[in-house]
Amino acid sequence: MVATDYWKAYESFVPKDIHIQSKAETFTVEGYNNLFRHFLTRMRRKYKCYSKSSTMLYYSFALLMAKLNGTSAILN
After folding, report:
1. Backbone angles phi, psi at 42, to 5 degrees
2. What is the pLDDT of residues 15-67, one digit of tens each?
3. C-alpha–C-alpha distance, residues 47 and 45, integer Å
4. What is the CA radius of gyration of the chain?
């Protein structure tokens, strides 16, 4: 399933049988996007602080989630 908001352009390229248009389905994703942009400079505008390596971007996300979930003893 693909969840989007009500922007009309999505209807032209997302197949109807897998498309859900609902704010209730998208607010969680938008919340995580906002969280990542807030804590990780890599996810902000591409000026000086952006990821040049997908591996470093992956590890940045993993460290942030470990910190927020309290699953890494070294970060707590």
Report:
1. -60, -25
2. 999 998 888 877 877 888 888 878 877 776 666 666 677 888 888 888 888 88
3. 6
4. 16
Sign of the Cα torsion 11, 14, 15, 21 reads negative
pLDDT-based confidence at residue 5 (cuts at 50, 70, 90):
confident
CA 68 to CA 76: how far, in whole Å?
9
CB 36 within 8 A of CB 64: yes
* Nearest-angstrom CA–CA distance, 7 and 11: 8
Kindly state the tokens that stand for 32.
């995580």
3-state DSSP call for residue 4?
strand
Instruction: Give CA–CA dist 34/43, Å, rounded.
Output: 9
